[in-house]
Structure formats: C-alpha cells, structure tokens
TrEMBL record:
Entry-linked SUPFAM superfamilies: BRCT domain
SMART domains referenced in this protein's UniProt entry, alphabetically: BRCT
GO cellular component annotations of the record: Cul8-RING ubiquitin ligase complex; nucleus
Pfam family, one: PTCB-BRCT
Protein name listed in UniProt: BRCT domain-containing protein
Residues in BRCT domain copies: 5-102, 103-193, 339-411, 628-713, 797-849
GO biological-process terms attached to the record: DNA double-strand break attachment to nuclear envelope; double-strand break repair
Basic and acidic residues bias locations: 491-500, 605-622
InterPro entries, alphabetized: BRCT_dom, BRCT_dom_sf, CellCycle_DNARepair_Reg
Region of interest: Disordered: 471-555, 593-622
Amino acid sequence: MADQDGSSLFGRCNFAFVTSKDLSETLIGELSQSIVKFGGEVSPPKRDGSLPLADITHLVSNTIEFPQYDKAATMMIPVVKSKWISASLAKGKLAQIRPYTPDPRMIFSDVMLACADIPGTDKDTIIGATMAMGGMYSDQVTKLTTHVCALSMDHPKVKMAKDRKHPCKIVLPHWFDDCFKLGKRIDEGPYTLPNPEILRVSSDESVDAKESPYLNGAVTTKPEYLPPPDSSRERSLHLTVFEEKKLMLSKDTDMNERFKSIIVDLITKAGGQITESPDDCDWLICRYRDTEEYIRASQLGKTVGNMAWLFYVIQTNTWSNPLHRLLHYPEPRNGIPGFEELTISVSNYGGEARIYLENLVKSAGGTFTKNLKAENTHLITARDNSEKCEAAREWNVHMVNHLWIEESYAKCQMQSLTVSKYTHFPPRTNLGEIIGQTFFDERMLQDLYFPSNAETTAVVPVRKRKALDITGENPAVESSDPSPAAGRPRKQFDIKRDANTDNAEMVALPPPTKRRSTEFATPARGRHVRSGKENETPSSVTSSSRSAKDKALGRLSTLAPDIALYEKEKKRGLKDGQPWGGKRAADYIEREHLNRRQASSPSPGEDKEPPKAEKRPTKKARLPEVEVRVILTGFKRWVNDPQKEDTDRKKLRDMGIAVVQDGQPCDYLIAPQLVRTVKFLRNLSKGAIILSSTWIEECLDTKQVPDPEKYVLRDKENEKRFGLKLETSIQRAQENNGQLLAGIPIYCTAGIKNGTESYQAIAEANGAIFMVYGPRSGSTIKPTNPEDDEGGPDPVYLLSTSTPEEKKLWKRFEDMARRGNMEPRVVASDWLLDVVMKQEIGFDKKYLVSNFFI
C-alpha cells in the first residue's frame, strides 16, 4: 500500500465515474475518497448529466453501455473498471490499463494467468493470445492469480496454489484453445482439474443449457407488450433515463394510437420530449433501415433503436447501445442477401435462446422450421450431438453454431461456412451460454444503409472531427475482424478546418465506395491452375502492386512530420515524467497541423514566403493544489447556463477551489438558504460547515478567496419556519457522526412522490435501515420477545402519501409490525426531513398520514 501521508499516487489523475448496476453511488463515494486521499481529483458530471471528458484523464466504468464511450475512446481517455483503482492502491503505483477494460470483447480482461507443466511452444501461444485478449501473465503463482494452466496436479506451482489456498482455478490448456477458436469465453467448469469433465464424461451425454444474460429484453425486434421493471429497480420506479431527451417515433413502428399514447405519456412524464424531426431528436425509434428518418438520423450520429430497445431502456431505466444487441437495432426490410434461399432449423438451444434464433433467422430473410427436413439447408446447433445433428449428417445439411447467423447479421452479409469457429463445438459445453454477445459491424452498416452523398451528407461536430482528423479513424466504425483484439480501421477524411473557431460547425464526409450485391455472397472459387514458372507473377498484379507501393510512399511522406513530432514529444514526455497520449497529445499535434497549414497557405495576393519556424508552445502551467473542496446545492447562478458553469468552475479551480460531487469529502457545503435538498441533508448529517452561496459569488466576482468564517450561513426566517437553530443542528450532527437513526428501520412506499432514492440517501446517511415496501413485499421484520421491550415496543416507520394505492398497504404494514412486536407509524416524508434537519429524533402525531394529509 502506498504511504498514507501525502501520497501522490493519483497526483496527475482526474477521474470521472459512470454510475451503473455494478458501480453504485455508495461505492463511487468510497473510491472518490481514496482518490482524493492519494492526490487525485474527481470531476462530477455536468448539469446535463454528461461527462466532462475535456478535463479528465481516466474514466471509471464497469460497463461500456453509456453514450460517451465512443467519444472517450476517440479522445484516447482510458476507460477502466473500478477494480483498477483498488489494484493501483494495492501495488502502490498505477496498474496497467488493458486488463481492466470493461469492453466485453476483451474476453480475458480479468484473467491473471500462470502456466505449470505446459510445453514451450504451447505455453507461448497461450500466454500471447491471453494477453492480446486483455489478460495478464505472471511466472509465479500469487494471490492475484486467477487461472493456472496445467496438465496435472503434480506440478510445484499447482501444489503451492493448493497449499496456500489461493482462490484460483486449475484448468487444462484445452479451455484456452476452445476460447481462442470461438473468440468467446466459455465456462471453465468442464476443464477444471483434478477431475475435468471433458476427460471423464462422454461427449454424447447431454449438457444442461445455461441462460445467457445478453438476451434479456433482446429476443425479438417487435415485442408485443412492455415487460415489468427489473427486480433491481423495485426500489426505484421513477424513470430518469428520458430526462432532457428528444425522441422520434417513426411511423413504421406500426403502433396503434392507444398504445402510442401510453408510450408518449410515459416518456413525457419522465422528462422527455417527442419530436417529428430526425434533425432535432436525440433518439430515433424505427423498425426498418430504409426510411428517410433512419438514414438522416444515422448520418447525424443519433442513437437509433427499435421498439425492443425502447422497452429495454424503460425496463432497466438505463441507456444501452442498440448496436450491441442484434435485435435492438432496426432490421433490413428485405433481409440479408442470400438468406432468402435458406431454410434453417435449430437444435440444442432452449428457452429465450431458441426464440432469439428463430427471430434472427426471420430478420435475416431466411425461412425457419421447427422440425428438420431433408429440404433444410442449415442446422444451427449448440452442440454436435442430437437426433437433428445425426439427421443433418445423413442429409448433408450444413451444421453450424449460432456465431454464423449472428455474424452474418452483424456484418450484413452471409459469412463463409469454411470459417472454423462456426463449426467448432467444445465437447462438454452448450454454446447457448455465450449467445447474444455479437456486436454490429458499424462500418458495414454505414456503407450499406446510410452512405454519404450529395443530398444527405454525414455531419460531424468540430470537436469530434478534430480528433478524427488527428487519429485518422472513425470511432463509430469497427474492424470487421471478429477478434476482440482487432484494432479499428484507419480512414482518411478531407476536412476543411477553421483555425479561429471551436464551435460545433458541421463538415461533410466523403461518400464511401459503392459495393456490388455480388460482393456479399460467399463465392464458389474454382481452382486456379497456372503453367510456367511457379514464382511467376502476372503483369497486372505487378503493376497494381507498384501503384499501391507508390501511393503508400506518398502517403508516408506526408505523415513524416507527424511521426517525427510524435516521437519527439513522446521522448520529451518521458523525460519530464509526463504521460503521453489522450487530449494532451491530440491538442498538441492539432496545433502543429494548423501551424503548417497556415504557413503553407498564404492569403490571396500575398507572396508565398518560406515557412518560419514556429516557436514551441510553452508548457501549460499546472493547476494550483486544491485548498478547499465544496459541494453546492440550490446554487442559482448557473441555472440553464452550462457554458457559464464550466467557465466558473475553471475559475474556481484556478483559485484552488474544487467543486466536488455529492458523497465526496468536502470542507464546506454551499447553499443560498436553509433548504431540504438531498445534498443539504446528507452533508448536514456529516456535520459539514455550511456557507452562504454569497461566498462563491464573491470568489468569482473578485477573483479572490475571502475568509469563509465571515460567510457562515444565517437564515433566521427559515430557522423559525422549521423550528430549529442551524448552529445547534450542526453541533448535534458532529456528535451523532452520521448515526442519528442507527438501527431504526424505515420503510418507504415504492410509488412515493419524487422516488425512493432521495429518501434512501438521507436515511442511510444517518445510519437508518432503509427498505422499499410494495404490494408484493413480504414480512421482513424479525419478531422480538415482548419481555425484552422494557420501555415499550420500538417504532418502525413507513413513509407514505395518501393515494388510494398506498392506503391499501397501511394495514398490511401495521399487521407485519405488530407481529414483530414493534409499533407501526405510517408517516409523511416530512417527518424524516425534519428529524434530519434538526438532528434530533422526535415524533409528533401531526406527521401521521391520517393527520398530515387532511
């Protein structure tokens, strides 16, 4: 562990977090404290919820399902799992980035490999491929080792792992081999020593199919009903995913007016808007890829999904990329070329996987049959052992796994059956466990369905365009190489740059090359027989080769200054101890591009002079150390003006004042008056000193930091209104140390106004036991012995309103409390807010819902 006193482990790092199911606000708060403790900074999201990518060096997320992932990748900002922070703290230095990527295509990203008795060549192959797919290798077995590749249990490394009880898996090299062949990570169970299933059980015996998590809400392109929310969202039924989003519902969704009105009402109540223009929308919902709105929205870089995707977003209350699930994206109206002639059946897949494959075959344009017949052309199977498989062999029916149909659909063209991974079946694995993991090939989608042309050109904002121009690639376009380790293809753009503006102007991209329909079929190639010398090269090939070589040399000569600049700057960065890459590298190379173009392009009528040597830009001064960390609530200066907010935050940071996110350590809480916001009450519970927002105003207006003690918040009017004295509340909070409500159970109805999250945050900040109570909630109060209750039964609270739905819950809650020998109190939420504001437990019958809502 790095030293505790003034460690600068994260001294050059500025982090931002992406909240998800696996990365809660509580965990983010804990990690933020560690980052700040070891010299780093944490930047909160902007007011519109977007991430401040221009200011950060690292993005912490346990998923790639957030809107700015592609932009972060374009800006070369590393996206890492939360485990990376823990690993860096444990090592006392910044850990490697690659093994902690959240990209699911890096299938070995959490594997730390050690090899035992593996032959040299095989060992090198396994190590190289594992590291290429996100894993790490260690020659020794340590506590961090997750997998030991061995042929037996007799090797000293294996014995040491067992003796020291390391929680690692001892697997045969066959597991790595099968994973490499499929390009997917399968379960290690059948390959685990000392008694591996693949060596003791016949491959003919049945294998239980496992459900794939990637099919949740993605088994059809046109769902017939809206599924209920996830169980993980039972505590929060308030939709937030549509806030400040504009949606367009295309006419080809074929919704009836009643159902459409329900969807529209749901979106608008959740803070979204409905628009009729693809230019104005943020998200387009449509069914097919040939409509004008689809083409326009895709060219503008909007999020485009179908009804299944919209329902999934509503169900999970989180944004996801529709390109990452095949049936969440609009389907081709006429299918994939060549599939109209295919008749396909399925074997060894069950449940949702079978339904998913049936719908995928139909969307691709093929004919699906439940039973296998001699007329069938293909059998998609999860294993190569079943009655259908035997029949397919007899009738010469092509037998493939689901990767063939998935990648054909994802790449918009039928894939060749000669690719080995499509016909690979591990002996004791049902491939249904890895179904649904294939992403769309975005480059093929663009080339085929929304290419640029004179009438409708793709447009890209200047900020994004600059990054594309420097890196020479499109972040929205992936390589067609199915390997997770494959890079993105380089693509050249002819872009006119404005040196004096940073506004989001739009620039046209060149149209892609047209593709003939015959290019998408798998051709039957004849054997080429040539007479004469074996090494003779046809003249046409020679000419083409020379032409390509000349072009490459010409292109290389234009890139030579950039290459030299990169190498020079990289060495300088290493010498100064500065990291190279990301926004810093992109901005510097961008300025050098601009200087050369200005020097080489004189104004009209001006004589062209030799370019003068540009003076090297001075190194940007480092920001001052953070002296004060503040949390703002109710601050009105930046309302509806995010640009002013960004400018003011930078001014404050230049003065040593950092505006941090709620949940992080802070020196002061800033508020215009006594308010009952979540931020105010949570930080009051920690005993934070509260300053008037006038202090921030003075800092920004005078560019000086006045004495904070002169700006301690005083609000006599609201103190009288709430019946408290703020100074006394802060003193009590410091004494309570966040344990005012420790051990007190507080329930909250699921449909309470403003959602349950805010009340949960306030209650848990004071040590309460918080639970959501709904129509299907069971008895969760453990009965106590009445004889132990010397001063009477302890109270248990239910926060509720007086709606008819919530009234139905009162009696059942009261019965549950009395069965547990506790006193039920159904109260308005104001009871919790007033108790926390005063930092003193009290109760008055006026808070009972029967009295409060009269």
